[in-house]
Amino acid sequence: MGFKEGFLWGGATAANQVEGGIFEGGRGLANVDLMPYGQDRYAIGTGEKWINHIDNHYFPSHQAVDFYHHYKEDIALMAEMGFKVFRISIAWTRIFPHGDEESPNEEGLKFYEDVFKECHKYHIEPLVTINHFDCPMYLINKYGGWRDRRMIDCYVKLAKVLLIRYKHFVKYWLTFNEINMILHFPFVAAGLRFKDDENKIQAMITCAHHELVASALVTKLAHEINPQNQIGCMLAAGSYYPATCKPEDYWKAICDNRESYMFIDVQSRGYYPPYALKWIEKNQATIPFMNDDKNLLMENTVDFISFSYYSSRVSSSTPDSSCQTESNIFASVINPYLKSSEWGWQIDPLGLRITMNELYDRYQKPLFIVENGLGAKDIVEEDGTIQDDYRIHYLREHIKAMKDAVDKDGVDLMGYTTWGCIDLISNGTGEMEKRYGFIYVDRDNRGKGTFKRLKKKSFEWYKKVIATNGELL
């Protein structure tokens, strides 16, 4: 059987990790522009510490890999690989520099229109994330980010402008990237900076609820503007295994998985599940329901489930802090049966099949893998080649697992976009040397380099995978 005809092969990026050009085209300042490289990055991302303006830190997103000026070259390279889809996100402050202006910034709108036209020139479908860890600093200073319900109107206004302007260019949309990251990286995910002695769970649940309401409103709007639009939610996924068959470990794994699924349950099923209500109550928090929120959520569920997968995770009822690793910000007990990447992310292709089955069993909606990849140090050889066999092996094994989920388990899968199809800035660490792409960009951790693009060995490999619809791996 294999993958269905029209399967969407491609790659994924995010504006703040590839674009650069933050002072060009009328763009305003966003939260991601104040995420420095170095030891302060994690504390700022979690909302525990912050800086209010550009200072003497090095901020890697300011230039990133300069997609802003190189997009034609980059999209041509993606087309050479045979991409059917390119996942991209919108920088909110390119469209509304403060986030709440009366009229959008035409220069920003024109930039993305040109990008989409370039995609269509090569018959590549854009998959657009409306909000990929992106919040105007003006709104964070004015409202405190997504903790204020007025953010909903600002976001819906942005989305309406995009949905109308790009009606004939884009039909696949994601409302929020990895919405469950609000519980792990809240400044990045929701512009949330904690106040002294406040109930942090309450602050995060308030932000999440406002984003969920905004997502439902935009889902409704997208279907009204163009009935052909397909709207997805997006989850930072990776199933939790119990550390042992001890019942307490198994229960901890259930609870950890539920914490990941909680907001996707709302977007996909239309209501907060009982376990979520109890978890929120246990943490002395409440959901700030207003007006017709419950009906809105129930009547405007998403069309498909998209997710990122890098590794599985392990739960223990008695974790040992000396035996933990982190994968995509999530702490996990180390799995002794798995190998790890250079950054300690455990490699588990079967875990992708397991995660796909759990998601499809849970929601019975089409799935779309919109992030999967290996961050590694690449070496440019003297002859200019980059022999990234380790990346090919990682992706090959994950695509095999993906195929098993489709062929053997009956999972409905729409497409697959590898993360960082071109090298980009790491969201978690701000590093450049943690490379994911099929395309190498000459740039280092301190922002030095020529921006020159080079094809890696994996470039030709992925080209063959796409050409054979995943048959030749």
Automatic annotation (TrEMBL):
Q: Does the keyword Hydrolase apply?
A: yes
- What's one GO MF term for it? beta-glucosidase activity
What does the record list as coiled-coil region(s)?
none
- Might you report a single GO cellular component term? cytosol
InterPro entries cross-referenced by the UniProt entry? GH, GH_1_N_CS, Glyco_hydro_1, Glyco_hydro_1_AS
UniProtKB keywords: Glycosidase, Hydrolase
Pfam families annotated for this entry? Glyco_hydro_1
Q: Name one GO biological process term.
A: carbohydrate catabolic process
Superkingdom of this protein's organism: Bacteria
Q: Which family does it belong to?
A: Belongs to the glycosyl hydrolase 1 family.
UniProt protein name? 6-phospho-beta-glucosidase
Which lineage? Bacteria, Bacillati, Bacillota, Erysipelotrichia, Erysipelotrichales
